[in-house]
From TrEMBL, chain A:
It holds the Pfam family Fer4_10. Residues 52-84, 120-149 form the 4Fe-4S ferredoxin-type domain. It catalyses: a quinone + NADH + 5 H(+)(in) = a quinol + NAD(+) + 4 H(+)(out). It comes from Candidatus Acididesulfobacter diazotrophicus. The gene is nuoI. This is NADH-quinone oxidoreductase subunit I. It is found in: Cell membrane.
UniProtKB/TrEMBL annotation, chain B:
The gene is nuoH. InterPro entries: NADH_UbQ_OxRdtase_su1/FPO, NADH_UbQ_OxRdtase_su1_CS. It holds the Pfam family NADHdh. This is NADH-quinone oxidoreductase subunit H. It comes from the Bacteria. The chain crosses the membrane at residues 6-28, 75-97, 117-140, 161-182, 188-205, 237-261, 267-288, 308-327. Belongs to the complex I subunit 1 family. It is found in: Cell membrane; Membrane. It is a multi-pass membrane protein. It catalyses: a quinone + NADH + 5 H(+)(in) = a quinol + NAD(+) + 4 H(+)(out). GO terms for cellular component: plasma membrane.
């Protein structure tokens, strides 16, 4: 009953109304927090996780060795890797170390490589990727890392699947 | 005679143009003030800082499809927005917006007509606006429109009383119904000093009469879609808004005239003083709107009948007593 009485007291109501007016007046003179988005951007944090990108060596070769760890760990199954071997071509002479590599004997004829793996295709479906960073964390070669890109737009779902070329450029 | 005709026509054109323009730009001001109160920026894209936004909105509204519901009463449906706008545009005819000026030896009062019952004229016209709302709500043949119209009608009638009674104190002190006379009798002291309660009651009651937040029960978005203008589109919709924002200007001008000394003021030209005062009162209205939430219907009626009406009656009695005691 007492609370009801207090609610209805005219002085209290007036006081609360004035407090409301004061609140809006103070916010009126504060600086707006809006960013004019396309022209003005928020500063990204140092450890911001965008979508994953592929890293390359100084000689433009991929660092990825197709170990499949990222594909395995990916919780949303966004990464798809097709395994391939590095082909040295017909005329390549085998080095001493390659000659002693027993695993080469298992390979088919006319394939000249030492069993070094590389990804033939490496696809990340950006529509599935949740930018969790597990792939970066598990990668033994530091071949995949999180970029700071997060704005994408596609007209079809297929455009959302990025291959090696696009992933390098991210 | 011809000189009088020309000056009057020019005055009408200027007042008409300024009123429509300010009604359009009030939408921008309202959005900017709302944005600042909510720590936002408001419209920024159309022109420098969005200053062309009202024009863009106007063009958009002109080209929108004009829909009339199949079961609506066509004549009344078209008539209603016009009834809202006409009284608003007419009211400004009696409001003095500047000191009389001299042109070619003639004294030209900066007021379209000096009616000797100016306040009555203003009050009569301001209560006409309700017909547009009620007719529009009924003619739309929609339950939301009808509900909004009924609410608005009940609300406007209950606030009209305290609105009129709050002015009576001013009339008693000025001893005149003409707005020009009321302004000139405030040359030494504004009436807000003598009538602070009358001013507050007028401010609240006029907010309620204009159907603005926190008294916008007639168009409560959360409850009845858009109230009486639910079915309106295109320029008819725009007419309702011209009426609404025009009414803010009118009410601010009336408050300025009755309580804040009209165009009286030192140093600056009188028209500028009038504009500054009106602008400040408009800002108060906007400030109210973006501070308070909407009242419940019974709260609204309680405030009107149980608080504002007795207060305004007491205000008249106290004013009368003091005037007799001082022997005026």
């Amino acid at each position: 009953m007492d609370t009801k009485k207090e609610e209805n007291s005219l002085i209290l109501i007036t006081k609360n109304l004035l407090i409301g007016l004061k609140t809006t007046l103070t916010t009126f003179f504060q600086k707006p927090v809006t960013f004019q988005y396309p022209r003005e951007r928020l500063k990204l944090a140092e450890r911001f996780r965008g979508v994953p990108k592929l890293n390359i060596n100084k000689d433009n070769s991929l660092r990825c060795v197709a170990c499949m760890l990222c594909q395995t760990v990916c919780p949303s199954e966004a990464i798809k890797i097709k395994l391939g071997y590095v082909d040295y071509g017909n005329k390549h002479e085998l080095t001493e170390r390659q000659k002693q590599n027993k695993s080469l004997e298992k390979l088919e004829n006319n394939i000249y490589n030492d069993g070094r793996r590389h990804p033939e295709t490496f696809e990340i479906d950006l529509l599935r990727c949740i930018c969790c960073g597990y792939c970066e964390e598990i990668c033994p070669e530091e071949a995949i890392s999180m970029s700071d890109k997060f704005e994408f737009g596609f007209y079809t779902r297929d455009e959302g699947v990025f291959g090696i070329d696009k992933l390098i450029k991210l | 005679m011809i000189f009088w005709l020309i000056t009057t026509l020019i005055k009408i054109l200027i007042v008409f143009g300024v009123l429509l323009l300010s009604a359009a730009y009030l939408t921008l001001l309202e959005r900017k003030v709302a944005a600042r109160i909510q720590n936002r920026l408001g419209p920024m894209e159309a022109g420098f800082h969005g200053y062309l936004q009202p024009i863009a909105d106007g063009i958009k509204l002109f080209f929108k499809e004009d829909i009339i519901p199949a079961d609506a009463n066509k004549l009344l449906f078209i008539l209603a927005p016009i009834i809202v706008v006409i009284p608003v545009l007419t009211t400004f005819a009696v409001i003095p917006f500047g000191a009389p000026i001299k042109i070619f030896g003639h004294i030209v009062p900066l007021q379209i007509t000096n009616v000797n019952i100016g306040i009555l004229f203003v009050l009569a016209l301001s209560s006409l606006g309700i017909y547009g709302v009620v007719i529009g709500g009924w003619a739309s043949n929609s339950k939301y429109s009808l509900l909004g119209a009924i609410r608005t009608a009940a609300q406007m009638i209950s606030y009209e009383l305290s609105l009129v009674l709050s002015i009576i104190g001013v009339i008693m002190i000025a001893g005149n119904l003409s707005l020009a006379q009321i302004v000139s009798s405030q040359a030494h002291m504004w009436f807000i000093v003598y009538q602070p309660i009358g001013f507050l009651i007028y401010l609240i009651a006029s907010t309620a009469e204009m159907n603005r937040v926190p008294f916008d029960l007639g168009e409560a978005e959360g409850e009845i879609v858009a109230g009486f203008h639910t079915e309106y589109s295109s320029m008819k919709f725009a007419f309702y808004f011209i009426g609404e924002y025009g009414q803010i200007v009118i009410n601010s001008a009336i408050i300025t005239t009755l309580f804040l000394g009209g165009w009286e003021g030192p140093f600056l030209p009188s028209v500028l003083w009038f504009v500054i005062k009106v602008f400040l009162v408009i800002l108060i209205y906007l400030w109210f709107r973006w501070t308070y939430p909407r009242l419940r219907y019974d709260e609204l009626m309680d405030l009107g009948w149980k608080i504002l009406l007795p207060l305004s009656l007491a205000n008249i009695v106290v004013t009368g007593f003091i005037m007799i005691l001082l022997g005026k």
